[in-house]
Amino acid sequence: MPVTELEAAPDPASLDLTDPQTFLDVDQHAMWRRFRTESPVHWHPAGPASPGFWVISRYADAVAVYRDNKRFTSEKGTVLTTLLQGEDSAAGKMLAVTDGVRHREIRNLMLKSFSPRVLAPVVDGVHRHTRELLGAAVASDRTDFVADVVDHIPMHTMGDLLDIPAADRPRLVEWNTRTLSRHSSEESEFESLLARNEILLYISELAAERRAKPGDDVLSTLATATIDGRPLSDDEIVLNSYSLILGGDESTRMSITGGLIALADNVDQWRRLKSGEVTSESATEEILRWTTPAMHFGRRALVDVELGDRIIRAGDVVTLWNASANFDEDVFTDPHTFDVGRTPNKHVVFGHGPHFCLGAFLGRVHVTAMVEALRAMVAEVTLLGPPQRLYSNFIQGYSGLPVALRAEPAVEEVR
Ligand code: HEM
């Protein structure tokens, strides 16, 4: 990135990272480069009703904090909004906001349902379902890639894993989007809260049914599991199922959609993929890095910690910006180039350390399924209008993407 562009980026001291609008207004690549260069461990001032917090933008610092669950806790929340409120009502019960022994116990229990071996039969289903949806999209002249294709994929998988009735899945997708992000600035935080409550209520009814009549789905596993002979509490069952629905859906959708945009914008990379010069796995990793759907996660310091040349005080909120770390020039060569053959590519899209994403394998499976389906079935991608961006300081991505997908002749003949 030329120096002039760096200078044109807003001064870190002038930015309000609590405001979703900031992420729509700025050139994020330039903004984060300036943070990394000038203020890598940056103190973000307090707002009228919220405390100040640390903004960590370099890869090495983010990894150091992710790794260190002794001095940084997840139990006060892991997303800026909840961290600034000072507490997370799911603390100590839901995996992502639980530390210590209970975290390990619940994580080990849930990992059994998410290992590559156990998920092997699910993988075929993801590929099949992706091809079916893409097949319908190439058959029409214009499609909304988000609404017509992507919105139906991860929830379909999570729905099958948790045995959620098919008719209820679209509602869950909509609630998820409202919980984690918003379609526009008009929607209020109150609506996000309502959506979260709708999901929780929905799952608790389902969990009660499964406890009475268990099946072989993940919700039944949680509802009937025991740790040291004791069943999980109702809250643990509901909140951890909720975290699968929430964690498994929106981020995955955002990576798949952002991946298509990146391939359409970088025709040379699209050709490398089509020609077989690069593997679908390598393209998947670059799409994940390039899109980094979860822009940040966070922690609260338990003791004073020296980071860079700053002292983080016990009790301070610390935010780790994956959206910056994944473009850190100390780790990635030409980080602002989309390179489907990039290697190595040790991004932190799924975090790092003890809370490393439980669904990383499944997230990758979804992106790879789309990459392979696009390679086999689509000859050309044309964006038909500007993508509609989400309004959020946590999840970045798109809620609408009008495109035309021209079918490969071979696919055309089959139809
Ligand atoms: C944790 C990102 C897909 C479930 C995380 C973390 C990140 C992340 C960054 C670490 C949070 C932290 O350190 O505080 C993503 C992205 C995905 C994705 C970008 C898709 C591209 C999934 C899927 C599932 C899932 C498919 C469900 C099967 C979880 C859970 C945790 C987690 C339960 C908490 C793990 C723990 O605290 O031990 N995810 N995730 N995620 N993710 Fe994902």
TrEMBL record:
<keyword id="KW-0349">Heme</keyword>
<keyword id="KW-0560">Oxidoreductase</keyword>
<dbReference type="InterPro" id="IPR002397">
    <property type="entry name" value="Cyt_P450_B"/>
</dbReference>
<dbReference type="InterPro" id="IPR017972">
    <property type="entry name" value="Cyt_P450_CS"/>
</dbReference>
<comment type="similarity">
    <text>Belongs to the cytochrome P450 family.</text>
</comment>
<keyword id="KW-0408">Iron</keyword>
<dbReference type="InterPro" id="IPR036396">
    <property type="entry name" value="Cyt_P450_sf"/>
</dbReference>
<dbReference type="InterPro" id="IPR001128">
    <property type="entry name" value="Cyt_P450"/>
</dbReference>
<keyword id="KW-0503">Monooxygenase</keyword>
<protein>
    <submittedName>
        <fullName>Cytochrome P450</fullName>
    </submittedName>
</protein>
<keyword id="KW-0479">Metal-binding</keyword>
<dbReference type="Pfam" id="PF00067">
    <property type="entry name" value="p450"/>
</dbReference>
